[in-house]
Amino acid sequence: MNKNNLIIVVVLLILAIVFVYNKKTNDVKAKEEQQNSWQDKNWNDPQTKVEPKRDQIVPKPAEPEAPIKQKADNYQEALELSKKSNKPILLFFTATWCGYCVQMKNNTIPNADVQKMLKNFVYCEIDVDKDKATATKYGVRSMPTYKIINSGESVLGSSQGYQKPAAFNSWLNNYVK
Questions:
Q1: Does the pLDDT at position 162 exceed 70?
Q2: In angstroms, how far is CA 27 from the centroid of its own chain?
């Protein structure tokens, strides 16, 4: 086989591959269009959205009030939420560089039993490097530290160090009404 014949064979193979690829792509598009047109025609299909006529429009019912938020983004918000909900605040003093804090966040806080117990509190994580004033106010010297306070900022309880879920839950239970 000479060089010219080889080039012709390669070009024909490339054209055949392109043709087959386009055919398959067009077949998929055709099926999608056919399915979409069927859904448009089949107005009894429950997946098809039917717009009501203007005289049939019914006003939407009022949306229910959002439940009171349980987790505060900062100390001031925690105080406000505590006053609204009449719940004590759990302040969790933490730092990004604190290994035990990370363990608490990954293992203890997400625990299902702890999460149930936390519904009795307004939960607020305080990064001591970002909110030094609050950490100083509550005399935080090591991390993790936990303080339970009321909306008047009085300390009801305090603990520190890594705690397993059962121990942390037991400690929190002492402050549930």
A1: yes
A2: 40
User: Full-prediction pTM beyond 0.90?
Assistant: no
Domain boundaries, the chain: 3-56, 71-173
Query: Does residue 123 surpass a pLDDT of 60?
Result: yes
Tokens representing 17 are 């591959």
> Which tokens sit at 153?
């900022």
CA angle (120 as vertex; 115, 123 as ends), nearest 5? 70
Fold of the domain spanning 71-173: Glutaredoxin (3.40.30)
Give the least confident one: 5-9, 18-22, 77-81, 106-110: 18-22
Answer yes or no: are the C-beta atoms of 98 and 155 closer than 8 Å: no
Buried b / exposed e along 65-74 (16+ C-beta atoms within 10 A): eeeeeeebee
Is residue 131 within 8 A of residue 96, CB to CB? The reply is: no
| pLDDT over 60 at 135, yes or no | yes
Q: In what order do the strands lie in the sheet with 89-94?
A: 71-72, 122-127, 89-94, 145-149, 155-160
